[in-house]
């Protein structure tokens, strides 16, 4: 699996939205990280998005480069990126939200970031509402 993982890391080396990394759970420093993120078997692949929470989710798909790349493209890559690529990466709904929050200022952004973070942790909601909340959080974190 290591060659496929390394190839995925190379494919996303310049990505602004995907980070591919690894931790050796057999080292002193690695053991602590693996305990914190509840890694019990090796190799374990975890992914982190606004929807997965702080501990992430364990990836259950194929271990080939093609399977990992497909999962990354479909589930992790992209998202609305503020700045030069905003027109390419953001939906109309996201652009409207960016404009709204930019107009409100830094204090309102910080307050909304805290509010949405707490809601995402505790609220039970439909998948589409949770996704929109995660998108707004990702935008706010870039502001």
What keyword list fits this structure?
143 residues; mainly alpha; Glutaredoxin; 2 domains; two-stranded antiparallel ribbon; 7 helices; 57% helix
Task: Provide a descriptive summary of the structure in words.
The structure is a single chain. With 143 residues, the protein is mostly helical. It folds into 2 domains: 2-76, Glutaredoxin; 86-142. Helices cover 57% and strands 3% of the residues. It has 7 helices and 2 strands. The chain has helices spanning 2-11, 28-36, 65-76, 86-89, 92-104, 106-122, 127-142, and strands at 46-47, 57-58. The protein has a two-stranded antiparallel sheet with strand order 1-2. The longest helix has 17 residues, at 106-122. It is globular. The model has no long low-confidence stretch (mean pLDDT 87).
Using the CA coordinates, give the radius of gyration: 17 Å
CATH superfamily of the largest domain: Glutaredoxin
What about the largest sheet?
A: 2 strands, antiparallel
- What's the CATH C level of the largest domain? Alpha Beta
CATH topology (level 3) name of the largest domain: Glutaredoxin
Strand content: under 5%
pLDDT < 50 stretches: none
Number of self-contained structural domains = 2
Q: What's the rounded overall pLDDT mean? A: 87
CATH architecture label of the largest domain: 3-Layer(aba) Sandwich
> Which strand order do you get reading across the main beta sheet?
1-2
Helix amount, in percent?
Answer: 55-70%
């Amino acid at each position: 699996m290591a060659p496929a993982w390394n190839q995925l890391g190379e494919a996303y080396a310049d990505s602004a939205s995907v980070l591919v990394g690894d931790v050796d759970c057999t080292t002193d420093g690695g053991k602590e990280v693996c305990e914190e993120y509840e890694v019990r078997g090796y190799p374990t692949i975890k992914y982190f998005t606004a929807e997965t929470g702080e501990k992430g989710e364990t990836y259950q798909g194929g271990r080939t480069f093609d399977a990992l790349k497909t999962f990354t493209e479909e589930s992790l890559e992209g998202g609305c990126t503020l700045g030069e690529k905003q027109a390419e990466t953001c939906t109309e709904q996201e652009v409207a939200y960016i404009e709204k929050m930019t107009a409100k200022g830094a204090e309102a952004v910080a307050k909304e970031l805290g509010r949405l973070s707490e809601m995402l942790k505790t609220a039970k909601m439909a998948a589409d509402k949770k996704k929109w909340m995660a998108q707004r959080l990702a935008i706010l974190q870039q502001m």
